[in-house]
Protein backbone atom coordinates (compact mmCIF):
# COMPACT_ATOMS: atom_id res chain seq x y z
CA UNK A 1 0.00 0.00 0.00
CA UNK A 2 1.38 3.41 -0.94
CA UNK A 3 0.33 6.01 1.60
CA UNK A 4 -0.80 9.34 0.20
CA UNK A 5 -0.13 12.75 1.72
CA UNK A 6 -3.16 14.20 3.46
CA UNK A 7 -1.84 17.73 3.31
CA UNK A 8 -4.80 18.94 1.22
CA UNK A 9 -7.37 17.52 3.58
CA UNK A 10 -7.44 19.80 6.55
CA UNK A 11 -9.91 22.48 5.62
CA UNK A 12 -12.55 21.17 8.02
CA UNK A 13 -12.08 20.80 11.74
CA UNK A 14 -8.81 20.82 13.62
CA UNK A 15 -5.61 20.67 11.54
CA UNK A 16 -4.88 17.05 12.38
CA UNK A 17 -8.22 15.76 11.10
CA UNK A 18 -9.36 14.88 7.58
CA UNK A 19 -13.00 14.55 6.55
CA UNK A 20 -14.72 12.22 4.09
CA UNK A 21 -14.90 14.81 1.31
CA UNK A 22 -11.14 15.29 1.31
CA UNK A 23 -10.41 11.59 1.62
CA UNK A 24 -12.56 10.80 -1.45
CA UNK A 25 -10.65 13.42 -3.42
CA UNK A 26 -7.30 12.09 -2.17
CA UNK A 27 -8.30 8.56 -3.20
CA UNK A 28 -9.36 9.73 -6.67
CA UNK A 29 -6.16 11.70 -7.17
CA UNK A 30 -4.05 8.77 -5.99
CA UNK A 31 -5.60 6.83 -8.87
CA UNK A 32 -4.98 9.53 -11.50
CA UNK A 33 -8.54 10.82 -11.78
CA UNK A 34 -8.07 14.29 -13.23
CA UNK A 35 -11.64 15.08 -14.32
CA UNK A 36 -15.02 14.57 -12.69
CA UNK A 37 -18.35 15.05 -14.51
CA UNK A 38 -21.46 15.71 -12.47
CA UNK A 39 -24.14 17.90 -10.96
CA UNK A 40 -23.87 19.24 -7.43
CA UNK A 41 -26.53 19.18 -4.74
CA UNK A 42 -27.07 17.59 -1.31
CA UNK A 43 -24.86 15.92 -0.11
CA UNK A 44 -22.01 16.18 -2.62
CA UNK A 45 -21.66 19.91 -3.37
CA UNK A 46 -18.57 20.21 -1.18
CA UNK A 47 -17.09 17.14 -2.82
CA UNK A 48 -17.07 18.96 -6.16
CA UNK A 49 -15.63 22.07 -4.49
CA UNK A 50 -12.85 20.16 -2.75
CA UNK A 51 -12.09 18.25 -5.97
CA UNK A 52 -11.81 21.48 -7.94
CA UNK A 53 -9.69 23.15 -5.24
CA UNK A 54 -7.33 20.18 -5.32
CA UNK A 55 -6.73 20.46 -9.08
CA UNK A 56 -9.24 17.92 -10.40
CA UNK A 57 -11.22 19.43 -13.27
CA UNK A 58 -14.91 19.47 -12.42
CA UNK A 59 -17.37 19.75 -15.33
CA UNK A 60 -20.87 20.64 -14.16
CA UNK A 61 -23.82 19.51 -16.30
CA UNK A 62 -27.52 20.29 -16.53
CA UNK A 63 -28.81 16.72 -16.29
CA UNK A 64 -27.06 13.73 -14.71
CA UNK A 65 -27.56 11.30 -17.59
CA UNK A 66 -25.37 13.51 -19.76
CA UNK A 67 -22.75 13.75 -17.01
CA UNK A 68 -22.76 9.95 -16.78
CA UNK A 69 -22.56 9.59 -20.55
CA UNK A 70 -19.58 11.95 -20.54
CA UNK A 71 -17.85 9.82 -17.90
CA UNK A 72 -18.52 6.68 -19.95
CA UNK A 73 -17.14 8.24 -23.12
CA UNK A 74 -14.08 9.43 -21.19
CA UNK A 75 -13.61 5.81 -20.09
CA UNK A 76 -13.77 4.57 -23.69
CA UNK A 77 -11.36 7.24 -24.93
CA UNK A 78 -8.75 7.04 -22.17
CA UNK A 79 -8.96 3.44 -20.94
CA UNK A 80 -9.29 4.87 -17.42
CA UNK A 81 -12.62 4.90 -15.57
CA UNK A 82 -14.53 8.14 -16.16
CA UNK A 83 -16.07 9.47 -12.95
CA UNK A 84 -19.56 10.90 -12.59
CA UNK A 85 -20.82 12.55 -9.42
CA UNK A 86 -24.52 12.59 -8.56
CA UNK A 87 -26.68 13.73 -5.67
CA UNK A 88 -28.98 11.50 -3.66
CA UNK A 89 -32.36 10.27 -4.91
CA UNK A 90 -33.46 11.78 -8.23
CA UNK A 91 -29.95 12.87 -9.20
CA UNK A 92 -28.74 9.33 -8.59
CA UNK A 93 -31.63 7.93 -10.65
CA UNK A 94 -30.89 10.27 -13.54
CA UNK A 95 -27.37 8.88 -13.59
CA UNK A 96 -28.50 5.25 -13.87
CA UNK A 97 -29.30 5.20 -17.61
CA UNK A 98 -25.72 6.24 -18.27
CA UNK A 99 -24.36 3.68 -15.81
CA UNK A 100 -26.38 0.96 -17.51
CA UNK A 101 -25.33 2.17 -20.95
CA UNK A 102 -21.66 2.15 -19.92
CA UNK A 103 -22.00 -1.39 -18.61
CA UNK A 104 -23.76 -2.54 -21.77
CA UNK A 105 -21.07 -0.99 -23.95
CA UNK A 106 -18.19 -2.30 -21.77
CA UNK A 107 -16.94 1.23 -21.00
CA UNK A 108 -15.22 1.76 -17.65
CA UNK A 109 -16.97 4.36 -15.54
CA UNK A 110 -17.76 5.00 -11.88
CA UNK A 111 -20.90 6.74 -10.69
CA UNK A 112 -20.19 8.13 -7.24
CA UNK A 113 -23.39 9.19 -5.58
CA UNK A 114 -24.15 10.80 -2.29
CA UNK A 115 -27.05 9.13 -0.52
CA UNK A 116 -29.45 9.75 2.35
CA UNK A 117 -29.20 8.63 5.95
CA UNK A 118 -29.10 4.81 6.09
CA UNK A 119 -30.96 4.51 9.38
CA UNK A 120 -33.85 6.56 8.01
CA UNK A 121 -33.89 4.98 4.54
CA UNK A 122 -33.80 1.40 5.80
CA UNK A 123 -36.78 1.91 8.14
CA UNK A 124 -38.52 3.86 5.38
CA UNK A 125 -38.98 6.82 7.68
CA UNK A 126 -39.14 9.28 4.82
CA UNK A 127 -35.73 10.96 4.60
CA UNK A 128 -34.94 13.71 2.09
CA UNK A 129 -34.60 12.06 -1.36
CA UNK A 130 -34.54 8.59 0.12
CA UNK A 131 -34.03 5.53 -2.05
CA UNK A 132 -32.20 2.28 -1.39
CA UNK A 133 -29.63 3.40 -3.96
CA UNK A 134 -27.22 0.50 -3.62
CA UNK A 135 -29.83 -2.08 -4.52
CA UNK A 136 -31.44 0.13 -7.14
CA UNK A 137 -28.10 0.44 -8.94
CA UNK A 138 -27.11 -3.22 -8.81
CA UNK A 139 -28.94 -4.53 -11.92
CA UNK A 140 -27.52 -1.69 -14.02
CA UNK A 141 -23.89 -1.95 -13.00
CA UNK A 142 -21.01 -4.37 -13.30
CA UNK A 143 -20.82 -4.04 -9.51
CA UNK A 144 -22.25 -1.78 -6.80
CA UNK A 145 -20.53 -0.93 -3.53
CA UNK A 146 -21.31 1.24 -0.53
CA UNK A 147 -18.81 2.90 1.78
CA UNK A 148 -20.18 2.86 5.32
CA UNK A 149 -17.20 4.21 7.27
CA UNK A 150 -14.73 6.98 6.58
CA UNK A 151 -11.83 4.58 7.01
CA UNK A 152 -13.15 2.55 4.02
CA UNK A 153 -13.11 5.44 1.54
CA UNK A 154 -9.69 4.59 0.07
CA UNK A 155 -10.63 0.92 -0.15
CA UNK A 156 -14.00 1.71 -1.74
CA UNK A 157 -12.45 3.91 -4.42
CA UNK A 158 -9.70 1.35 -5.14
CA UNK A 159 -12.30 -1.42 -5.42
CA UNK A 160 -14.46 0.65 -7.77
CA UNK A 161 -11.48 1.55 -9.97
CA UNK A 162 -10.26 -2.04 -10.16
CA UNK A 163 -13.69 -3.42 -10.98
CA UNK A 164 -14.51 -0.81 -13.61
CA UNK A 165 -11.35 -1.32 -15.63
CA UNK A 166 -10.15 -4.90 -15.20
CA UNK A 167 -11.47 -7.84 -17.20
CA UNK A 168 -14.47 -6.75 -19.24
CA UNK A 169 -14.81 -3.05 -18.38
CA UNK A 170 -18.11 -1.67 -17.17
CA UNK A 171 -19.99 0.77 -14.98
CA UNK A 172 -19.50 0.65 -11.21
CA UNK A 173 -21.76 2.28 -8.68
CA UNK A 174 -20.15 3.68 -5.52
CA UNK A 175 -22.56 4.83 -2.84
CA UNK A 176 -21.35 7.25 -0.18
CA UNK A 177 -23.92 8.33 2.40
CA UNK A 178 -23.77 12.02 3.30
CA UNK A 179 -22.86 11.29 6.91
CA UNK A 180 -19.77 9.32 5.81
CA UNK A 181 -18.61 12.33 3.78
CA UNK A 182 -19.06 14.44 6.88
CA UNK A 183 -17.14 12.10 9.22
CA UNK A 184 -13.60 13.00 10.26
CA UNK A 185 -10.55 11.01 11.30
CA UNK A 186 -6.93 11.62 12.11
CA UNK A 187 -5.30 12.95 8.93
CA UNK A 188 -2.17 10.81 9.10
CA UNK A 189 -4.22 7.66 9.73
CA UNK A 190 -6.57 8.70 6.93
CA UNK A 191 -3.68 9.01 4.49
CA UNK A 192 -2.73 5.42 5.29
CA UNK A 193 -6.17 4.23 4.14
CA UNK A 194 -5.74 5.53 0.58
CA UNK A 195 -3.84 3.62 -2.08
CA UNK A 196 -3.08 3.55 -5.75
CA UNK A 197 -4.03 0.35 -7.52
CA UNK A 198 -1.14 -1.45 -9.20
CA UNK A 199 -1.55 -2.54 -12.83
CA UNK A 200 -5.24 -1.61 -13.07
CA UNK A 201 -6.03 -3.76 -16.14
CA UNK A 202 -3.55 -6.65 -16.07
CA UNK A 203 -2.70 -8.29 -19.36
CA UNK A 204 -4.44 -11.64 -19.86
CA UNK A 205 -2.43 -13.89 -22.11
CA UNK A 206 -4.18 -16.48 -24.26
CA UNK A 207 -3.29 -20.15 -23.86
CA UNK A 208 -0.79 -21.23 -26.57
CA UNK A 209 -3.04 -24.13 -27.62
CA UNK A 210 -5.96 -21.74 -28.10
CA UNK A 211 -3.80 -19.58 -30.39
CA UNK A 212 -2.67 -22.66 -32.29
CA UNK A 213 -6.28 -23.83 -32.70
CA UNK A 214 -7.40 -20.44 -34.01
CA UNK A 215 -4.55 -20.26 -36.51
CA UNK A 216 -5.34 -23.75 -37.77
CA UNK A 217 -8.97 -22.81 -38.34
CA UNK A 218 -7.91 -19.61 -40.12
CA UNK A 219 -5.41 -21.42 -42.32
CA UNK A 220 -8.20 -23.66 -43.67
CA UNK A 221 -10.48 -20.75 -44.53
CA UNK A 222 -11.49 -20.05 -48.10
CA UNK A 223 -13.38 -16.85 -47.40
CA UNK A 224 -12.00 -15.43 -44.14
CA UNK A 225 -13.23 -12.20 -42.61
CA UNK A 226 -12.08 -10.16 -39.60
CA UNK A 227 -14.74 -8.18 -37.70
CA UNK A 228 -13.28 -5.40 -35.55
CA UNK A 229 -15.55 -4.20 -32.74
CA UNK A 230 -15.36 -1.35 -30.29
CA UNK A 231 -13.59 -3.66 -27.82
CA UNK A 232 -10.69 -3.65 -30.30
CA UNK A 233 -10.78 0.15 -30.45
CA UNK A 234 -10.93 0.37 -26.66
CA UNK A 235 -7.97 -1.98 -26.21
CA UNK A 236 -5.53 0.56 -27.71
CA UNK A 237 -3.66 -2.22 -29.48
CA UNK A 238 -3.81 -0.37 -32.80
CA UNK A 239 -0.36 -1.29 -34.11
CA UNK A 240 -0.54 -5.03 -33.54
CA UNK A 241 -4.08 -5.23 -34.92
CA UNK A 242 -2.95 -3.46 -38.06
CA UNK A 243 0.11 -5.68 -38.35
CA UNK A 244 -2.00 -8.82 -38.08
CA UNK A 245 -4.58 -7.61 -40.58
CA UNK A 246 -1.93 -6.59 -43.10
CA UNK A 247 0.31 -9.62 -42.63
CA UNK A 248 -2.62 -12.02 -42.99
CA UNK A 249 -4.21 -10.14 -45.90
CA UNK A 250 -7.68 -10.99 -44.53
CA UNK A 251 -10.45 -8.51 -45.41
CA UNK A 252 -11.82 -6.64 -42.38
CA UNK A 253 -15.15 -5.12 -41.44
CA UNK A 254 -15.18 -2.42 -38.76
CA UNK A 255 -18.18 -2.09 -36.46
CA UNK A 256 -19.19 1.55 -36.22
CA UNK A 257 -17.04 2.56 -33.23
CA UNK A 258 -14.10 0.56 -34.59
CA UNK A 259 -14.06 2.70 -37.73
CA UNK A 260 -10.66 4.37 -38.05
CA UNK A 261 -8.82 1.61 -36.18
CA UNK A 262 -7.52 1.03 -39.66
CA UNK A 263 -8.50 3.84 -42.03
CA UNK A 264 -11.79 3.33 -43.86
CA UNK A 265 -9.82 3.90 -47.06
CA UNK A 266 -7.62 0.86 -46.31
CA UNK A 267 -7.56 -1.56 -49.29
CA UNK A 268 -8.59 -4.48 -47.06
CA UNK A 269 -11.66 -2.71 -45.68
CA UNK A 270 -14.89 -4.29 -46.88
CA UNK A 271 -17.17 -1.83 -45.08
CA UNK A 272 -18.79 -0.98 -48.41
CA UNK A 273 -19.43 -4.66 -49.16
CA UNK A 274 -20.76 -5.52 -45.72
CA UNK A 275 -23.76 -7.67 -46.67
CA UNK A 276 -21.79 -9.74 -49.12
CA UNK A 277 -18.84 -10.18 -46.76
CA UNK A 278 -21.12 -11.34 -43.95
CA UNK A 279 -23.24 -13.59 -46.12
CA UNK A 280 -20.33 -15.32 -47.82
CA UNK A 281 -17.56 -15.51 -45.19
CA UNK A 282 -16.80 -19.09 -44.17
CA UNK A 283 -14.49 -18.21 -41.27
CA UNK A 284 -14.95 -15.13 -39.14
CA UNK A 285 -12.46 -13.76 -36.64
CA UNK A 286 -14.32 -11.54 -34.17
CA UNK A 287 -11.99 -9.13 -32.39
CA UNK A 288 -13.73 -7.29 -29.53
CA UNK A 289 -17.15 -7.62 -31.17
CA UNK A 290 -20.12 -9.55 -29.78
CA UNK A 291 -22.43 -11.64 -31.94
CA UNK A 292 -25.43 -9.65 -30.63
CA UNK A 293 -28.26 -8.01 -32.61
CA UNK A 294 -25.81 -5.66 -34.30
CA UNK A 295 -24.33 -8.70 -36.04
CA UNK A 296 -27.64 -10.50 -36.56
CA UNK A 297 -26.65 -12.95 -33.78
CA UNK A 298 -24.46 -14.70 -36.34
CA UNK A 299 -27.60 -16.35 -37.75
CA UNK A 300 -28.32 -17.28 -41.31
CA UNK A 301 -29.44 -16.06 -43.76
CA UNK A 302 -27.52 -12.90 -42.84
CA UNK A 303 -24.50 -15.15 -42.23
CA UNK A 304 -23.56 -18.28 -44.07
CA UNK A 305 -25.10 -21.25 -42.22
CA UNK A 306 -21.77 -23.07 -42.08
CA UNK A 307 -19.64 -20.07 -41.07
CA UNK A 308 -17.04 -20.89 -38.40
CA UNK A 309 -16.39 -18.31 -35.71
CA UNK A 310 -13.13 -17.53 -33.95
CA UNK A 311 -13.64 -15.02 -31.15
CA UNK A 312 -11.17 -12.87 -29.23
CA UNK A 313 -12.64 -11.58 -25.99
CA UNK A 314 -11.56 -10.84 -22.47
CA UNK A 315 -14.83 -12.25 -21.12
CA UNK A 316 -14.93 -16.04 -21.78
CA UNK A 317 -18.67 -16.19 -20.99
CA UNK A 318 -19.20 -14.26 -24.22
CA UNK A 319 -18.19 -17.34 -26.25
CA UNK A 320 -21.10 -19.49 -27.44
CA UNK A 321 -23.62 -16.82 -26.43
CA UNK A 322 -25.15 -17.01 -29.87
CA UNK A 323 -23.25 -19.43 -32.11
CA UNK A 324 -20.75 -22.21 -31.52
CA UNK A 325 -17.29 -20.69 -31.27
CA UNK A 326 -14.87 -23.00 -33.06
CA UNK A 327 -11.81 -21.30 -31.63
CA UNK A 328 -12.30 -19.19 -28.50
CA UNK A 329 -9.40 -16.91 -27.64
CA UNK A 330 -9.75 -15.67 -24.08
CA UNK A 331 -7.41 -12.83 -23.30
CA UNK A 332 -6.80 -9.15 -23.76
CA UNK A 333 -6.81 -8.06 -27.37
CA UNK A 334 -3.24 -6.72 -27.32
CA UNK A 335 -1.84 -10.02 -26.07
CA UNK A 336 -4.03 -12.21 -28.26
CA UNK A 337 -3.33 -10.27 -31.44
CA UNK A 338 0.39 -10.31 -30.68
CA UNK A 339 0.26 -14.09 -30.37
CA UNK A 340 -1.77 -14.41 -33.57
CA UNK A 341 0.56 -12.09 -35.47
CA UNK A 342 3.62 -14.03 -34.31
CA UNK A 343 1.90 -17.33 -35.11
CA UNK A 344 1.45 -16.36 -38.75
CA UNK A 345 5.12 -17.22 -39.34
CA UNK A 346 4.41 -20.89 -38.68
CA UNK A 347 0.73 -20.92 -39.74
CA UNK A 348 0.60 -18.71 -42.83
CA UNK A 349 -2.81 -17.64 -44.09
CA UNK A 350 -3.48 -17.40 -47.79
CA UNK A 351 -6.58 -15.53 -48.81
CA UNK A 352 -7.88 -16.86 -52.14
CA UNK A 353 -7.78 -14.20 -54.86
CA UNK A 354 -11.33 -15.02 -55.89
CA UNK A 355 -12.67 -13.92 -52.48
CA UNK A 356 -10.76 -10.65 -52.65
CA UNK A 357 -12.04 -9.99 -56.17
CA UNK A 358 -15.63 -10.77 -55.24
CA UNK A 359 -15.47 -8.25 -52.41
CA UNK A 360 -13.61 -5.68 -54.49
CA UNK A 361 -16.26 -5.82 -57.20
CA UNK A 362 -19.09 -5.26 -54.73
CA UNK A 363 -17.14 -2.47 -53.05
CA UNK A 364 -16.60 -0.69 -56.37
CA UNK A 365 -20.31 -1.03 -57.25
CA UNK A 366 -21.48 0.31 -53.89
CA UNK A 367 -18.92 3.12 -53.91
CA UNK A 368 -20.21 4.24 -57.31
CA UNK A 369 -23.80 4.24 -56.01
CA UNK A 370 -22.73 6.29 -53.01
CA UNK A 371 -20.92 8.83 -55.22
CA UNK A 372 -24.07 9.23 -57.31
CA UNK A 373 -26.23 9.81 -54.25
CA UNK A 374 -23.81 12.33 -52.82
CA UNK A 375 -23.61 14.21 -56.10
CA UNK A 376 -27.36 14.84 -56.25
CA UNK A 377 -28.37 18.33 -55.22
CA UNK A 378 -32.10 18.35 -54.46
CA UNK A 379 -33.97 21.29 -52.90
CA UNK A 380 -34.84 21.07 -50.11
CA UNK A 381 -31.74 19.23 -48.99
CA UNK A 382 -31.89 15.56 -47.95
CA UNK A 383 -29.67 13.46 -45.66
CA UNK A 384 -27.12 12.34 -48.23
CA UNK A 385 -26.51 15.83 -49.57
CA UNK A 386 -25.97 17.27 -46.11
CA UNK A 387 -23.73 14.36 -45.14
CA UNK A 388 -21.75 14.77 -48.35
CA UNK A 389 -20.95 18.34 -47.32
CA UNK A 390 -19.98 17.25 -43.79
CA UNK A 391 -17.80 14.49 -45.23
CA UNK A 392 -15.95 16.95 -47.45
CA UNK A 393 -15.14 19.22 -44.49
CA UNK A 394 -14.16 16.36 -42.16
CA UNK A 395 -11.72 15.04 -44.76
CA UNK A 396 -9.67 18.16 -44.01
CA UNK A 397 -9.92 17.49 -40.25
CA UNK A 398 -9.04 13.83 -39.65
CA UNK A 399 -8.30 14.61 -35.99
CA UNK A 400 -11.81 15.89 -35.31
CA UNK A 401 -13.94 13.62 -33.14
CA UNK A 402 -17.30 12.59 -34.57
CA UNK A 403 -20.28 12.00 -32.30
CA UNK A 404 -23.33 10.58 -34.03
CA UNK A 405 -26.88 9.79 -33.00
CA UNK A 406 -30.32 9.65 -34.54
CA UNK A 407 -32.08 7.12 -36.73
CA UNK A 408 -31.42 8.13 -40.34
CA UNK A 409 -28.78 10.60 -39.14
CA UNK A 410 -26.91 7.68 -37.59
CA UNK A 411 -27.42 4.99 -40.20
CA UNK A 412 -26.48 7.18 -43.13
CA UNK A 413 -23.63 9.11 -41.49
CA UNK A 414 -21.99 5.84 -40.44
CA UNK A 415 -21.69 4.88 -44.09
CA UNK A 416 -20.95 8.28 -45.58
CA UNK A 417 -18.41 9.65 -43.07
CA UNK A 418 -15.11 7.77 -43.26
CA UNK A 419 -12.78 7.67 -40.27
CA UNK A 420 -8.99 7.66 -40.52
CA UNK A 421 -7.97 7.65 -36.87
CA UNK A 422 -8.79 5.17 -34.09
CA UNK A 423 -11.36 5.99 -31.37
CA UNK A 424 -12.56 9.16 -33.08
CA UNK A 425 -16.13 8.03 -33.60
CA UNK A 426 -18.58 7.81 -30.70
CA UNK A 427 -22.15 6.76 -31.33
CA UNK A 428 -25.28 5.17 -29.92
CA UNK A 429 -23.44 1.88 -29.44
CA UNK A 430 -24.78 -1.45 -28.29
CA UNK A 431 -28.22 -0.22 -27.29
CA UNK A 432 -28.70 2.23 -30.15
CA UNK A 433 -29.66 4.67 -27.41
CA UNK A 434 -30.64 8.28 -28.04
CA UNK A 435 -29.39 11.01 -25.72
CA UNK A 436 -25.67 10.28 -25.63
CA UNK A 437 -24.86 13.14 -28.01
CA UNK A 438 -23.92 16.13 -25.91
CA UNK A 439 -22.43 14.10 -23.04
CA UNK A 440 -20.13 12.22 -25.42
CA UNK A 441 -19.25 15.42 -27.29
CA UNK A 442 -18.32 17.21 -24.06
CA UNK A 443 -16.14 14.31 -22.92
CA UNK A 444 -14.37 14.11 -26.29
CA UNK A 445 -13.58 17.84 -26.16
CA UNK A 446 -12.56 17.84 -22.49
CA UNK A 447 -10.42 14.71 -22.67
CA UNK A 448 -8.65 15.45 -25.95
CA UNK A 449 -8.86 19.19 -26.61
CA UNK A 450 -9.58 18.37 -30.28
CA UNK A 451 -12.52 19.76 -32.26
CA UNK A 452 -15.70 17.70 -32.00
CA UNK A 453 -18.48 17.52 -34.58
CA UNK A 454 -21.74 16.06 -33.28
CA UNK A 455 -23.95 14.89 -36.16
CA UNK A 456 -27.44 14.78 -34.67
CA UNK A 457 -30.93 13.98 -35.75
CA UNK A 458 -33.25 16.75 -34.55
CA UNK A 459 -35.14 14.31 -32.33
CA UNK A 460 -31.96 12.76 -30.89
CA UNK A 461 -30.54 16.19 -30.09
CA UNK A 462 -33.56 16.97 -27.94
CA UNK A 463 -32.62 14.33 -25.37
CA UNK A 464 -29.49 16.18 -24.25
CA UNK A 465 -29.88 19.57 -25.95
CA UNK A 466 -29.69 21.66 -22.78
CA UNK A 467 -26.05 20.60 -22.45
CA UNK A 468 -25.30 23.14 -25.17
CA UNK A 469 -25.24 25.54 -22.22
CA UNK A 470 -22.51 23.34 -20.65
CA UNK A 471 -20.58 23.37 -23.94
CA UNK A 472 -20.81 27.18 -24.04
CA UNK A 473 -19.99 27.66 -20.32
CA UNK A 474 -16.73 25.73 -20.71
CA UNK A 475 -16.07 27.20 -24.20
CA UNK A 476 -15.56 23.75 -25.70
CA UNK A 477 -14.66 23.30 -29.40
CA UNK A 478 -17.90 21.47 -30.21
CA UNK A 479 -19.95 21.99 -33.37
CA UNK A 480 -23.41 20.46 -33.26
CA UNK A 481 -24.86 19.80 -36.71
CA UNK A 482 -28.59 19.16 -36.49
CA UNK A 483 -30.02 17.33 -39.48
CA UNK A 484 -33.46 18.82 -39.07
CA UNK A 485 -36.19 17.01 -40.97
CA UNK A 486 -38.70 17.98 -38.30
CA UNK A 487 -39.52 14.65 -36.76
CA UNK A 488 -38.70 11.33 -35.20
CA UNK A 489 -37.57 9.51 -38.37
CA UNK A 490 -39.24 12.15 -40.60
CA UNK A 491 -41.49 15.16 -40.23
CA UNK A 492 -44.25 14.74 -42.79
CA UNK A 493 -46.71 12.38 -41.08
CA UNK A 494 -50.31 13.54 -41.36
CA UNK A 495 -52.03 13.95 -38.01
CA UNK A 496 -55.16 12.08 -37.00
CA UNK A 497 -56.80 14.99 -35.23
CA UNK A 498 -55.75 18.44 -34.16
CA UNK A 499 -52.49 17.53 -32.37
CA UNK A 500 -49.29 16.90 -34.34
CA UNK A 501 -48.76 13.28 -35.47
CA UNK A 502 -46.68 11.18 -33.01
CA UNK A 503 -43.54 11.35 -35.13
CA UNK A 504 -43.78 15.05 -35.94
CA UNK A 505 -41.56 17.76 -34.41
CA UNK A 506 -41.01 21.16 -35.98
CA UNK A 507 -39.17 21.28 -39.28
CA UNK A 508 -38.92 25.07 -39.00
CA UNK A 509 -37.38 24.96 -35.51
CA UNK A 510 -34.30 27.20 -35.34
CA UNK A 511 -32.04 25.11 -33.11
CA UNK A 512 -29.09 27.44 -33.76
CA UNK A 513 -30.73 30.03 -31.52
CA UNK A 514 -30.06 27.72 -28.57
CA UNK A 515 -26.33 28.24 -29.10
CA UNK A 516 -26.82 31.99 -29.40
CA UNK A 517 -28.79 32.04 -26.14
CA UNK A 518 -25.69 30.88 -24.30
CA UNK A 519 -23.03 32.85 -26.16
CA UNK A 520 -22.22 30.31 -28.88
CA UNK A 521 -22.47 30.82 -32.63
CA UNK A 522 -25.57 29.84 -34.58
CA UNK A 523 -25.89 29.00 -38.27
CA UNK A 524 -28.98 28.16 -40.28
CA UNK A 525 -28.25 26.44 -43.60
CA UNK A 526 -30.41 25.18 -46.44
CA UNK A 527 -27.85 24.02 -49.03
CA UNK A 528 -24.75 21.79 -49.01
CA UNK A 529 -22.58 24.80 -49.95
CA UNK A 530 -23.85 26.79 -46.97
CA UNK A 531 -23.33 23.79 -44.70
CA UNK A 532 -19.77 23.32 -45.90
CA UNK A 533 -18.87 26.90 -45.28
CA UNK A 534 -20.57 27.05 -41.87
CA UNK A 535 -18.93 23.83 -40.69
CA UNK A 536 -15.46 24.87 -41.86
CA UNK A 537 -15.81 28.19 -40.07
CA UNK A 538 -17.20 26.61 -36.90
CA UNK A 539 -14.42 24.02 -36.64
CA UNK A 540 -11.75 26.65 -37.31
CA UNK A 541 -13.19 28.91 -34.59
CA UNK A 542 -12.68 26.20 -31.92
CA UNK A 543 -15.75 27.69 -30.23
CA UNK A 544 -19.22 26.30 -29.50
CA UNK A 545 -21.63 26.36 -32.44
CA UNK A 546 -24.89 24.87 -33.66
CA UNK A 547 -25.63 24.48 -37.34
CA UNK A 548 -29.34 23.93 -37.94
CA UNK A 549 -29.49 22.17 -41.23
CA UNK A 550 -32.92 22.44 -42.80
CA UNK A 551 -33.85 19.19 -44.56
CA UNK A 552 -36.86 18.03 -46.49
CA UNK A 553 -39.40 16.82 -43.87
CA UNK A 554 -40.11 13.93 -46.22
CA UNK A 555 -36.46 12.81 -46.08
CA UNK A 556 -35.79 9.74 -43.94
CA UNK A 557 -37.39 6.37 -43.33
CA UNK A 558 -39.22 5.10 -40.26
CA UNK A 559 -36.87 3.35 -37.80
CA UNK A 560 -33.89 4.07 -40.09
CA UNK A 561 -32.20 0.78 -40.98
CA UNK A 562 -34.07 -1.02 -38.22
CA UNK A 563 -37.52 -1.20 -39.81
CA UNK A 564 -37.49 -4.99 -39.34
CA UNK A 565 -37.36 -4.49 -35.55
CA UNK A 566 -40.50 -2.36 -35.55
CA UNK A 567 -43.45 -4.69 -34.94
CA UNK A 568 -46.03 -1.90 -35.06
CA UNK A 569 -45.08 -0.73 -38.53
CA UNK A 570 -45.14 -4.32 -39.81
CA UNK A 571 -48.61 -4.88 -38.33
CA UNK A 572 -49.97 -1.66 -39.82
CA UNK A 573 -48.56 -2.35 -43.26
CA UNK A 574 -49.81 -5.96 -43.12
CA UNK A 575 -53.27 -4.79 -42.06
CA UNK A 576 -53.46 -1.88 -44.46
P1 LIG B 1 -19.33 -3.80 -31.23
O1 LIG B 1 -20.64 -3.25 -30.74
O2 LIG B 1 -18.42 -2.79 -31.81
O3 LIG B 1 -19.53 -5.03 -32.07
P2 LIG B 1 -19.18 -4.99 -28.63
O4 LIG B 1 -19.40 -3.94 -27.61
O5 LIG B 1 -20.33 -5.87 -28.99
O6 LIG B 1 -18.53 -4.33 -29.92
O7 LIG B 1 -18.03 -5.95 -28.14
C1 LIG B 1 -16.92 -5.50 -27.43
C2 LIG B 1 -16.28 -6.74 -26.80
O8 LIG B 1 -14.93 -6.43 -26.55
C3 LIG B 1 -16.92 -7.16 -25.48
O9 LIG B 1 -17.38 -8.49 -25.54
C4 LIG B 1 -15.78 -7.00 -24.47
O10 LIG B 1 -15.76 -8.03 -23.50
C5 LIG B 1 -14.55 -7.06 -25.35
N1 LIG B 1 -13.39 -6.33 -24.84
C6 LIG B 1 -13.35 -5.10 -24.33
N2 LIG B 1 -12.10 -4.74 -24.01
C7 LIG B 1 -11.32 -5.80 -24.33
C8 LIG B 1 -9.92 -6.07 -24.24
N3 LIG B 1 -9.06 -5.17 -23.79
N4 LIG B 1 -9.48 -7.27 -24.67
C9 LIG B 1 -10.35 -8.21 -25.14
N5 LIG B 1 -11.66 -8.01 -25.26
C10 LIG B 1 -12.15 -6.82 -24.86
From TrEMBL:
Report the GO molecular function annotations. magnesium ion binding; oxalyl-CoA decarboxylase activity; thiamine pyrophosphate binding
Source organism, top-level taxon: Bacteria
Using the record's annotation, list all stretches that form the Thiamine pyrophosphate enzyme central domain. 211-340
Q: Where is the Thiamine pyrophosphate enzyme N-terminal TPP-binding domain?
A: 19-134
Q: List the cofactors.
A: thiamine diphosphate
Q: Which UniProt keywords apply?
A: Lyase, Magnesium, Metal-binding, Thiamine pyrophosphate
Thiamine pyrophosphate enzyme TPP-binding domain: residues covered? 413-549
Which is an annotated Pfam family here? TPP_enzyme_C
Which GO annotations describe the biological process of this protein?
fatty acid alpha-oxidation; oxalate catabolic process
Query: InterPro entries annotated for this entry?
Result: DHS-like_NAD/FAD-binding_dom, HACL1-like, Oxalyl-CoA_decarboxylase, THDP-binding, Thiamin_PyroP_enz_cen_dom, Thiamin_PyroP_enz_TPP-bd_dom, TPP_enzyme_TPP-bd
Similarity section: Belongs to the TPP enzyme family.
- What protein am I looking at? Oxalyl-CoA decarboxylase
Give the organism, scientific name.
Mycobacterium paraffinicum
Source lineage = Bacteria, Bacillati, Actinomycetota, Actinomycetes, Mycobacteriales
Amino acid sequence: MTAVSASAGQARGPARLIDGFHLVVEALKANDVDTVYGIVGIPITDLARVAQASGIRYIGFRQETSAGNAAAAAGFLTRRPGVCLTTSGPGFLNGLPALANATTNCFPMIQISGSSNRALVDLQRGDYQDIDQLNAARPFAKAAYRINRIEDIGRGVARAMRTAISGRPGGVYLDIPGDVLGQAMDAAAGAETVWRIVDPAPRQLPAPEAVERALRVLARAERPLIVLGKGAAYAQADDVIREFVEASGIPFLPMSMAKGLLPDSHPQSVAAARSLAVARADTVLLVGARLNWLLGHGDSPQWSADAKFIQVDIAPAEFDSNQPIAAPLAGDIGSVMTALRDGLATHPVTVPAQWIEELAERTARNDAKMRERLAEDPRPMRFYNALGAIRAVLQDHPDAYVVNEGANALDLARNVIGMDVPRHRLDTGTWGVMGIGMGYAIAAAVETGQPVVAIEGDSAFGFSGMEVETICRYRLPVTVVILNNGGVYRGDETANGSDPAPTVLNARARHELIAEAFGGKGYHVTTPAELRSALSEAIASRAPAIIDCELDPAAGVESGHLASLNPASKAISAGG
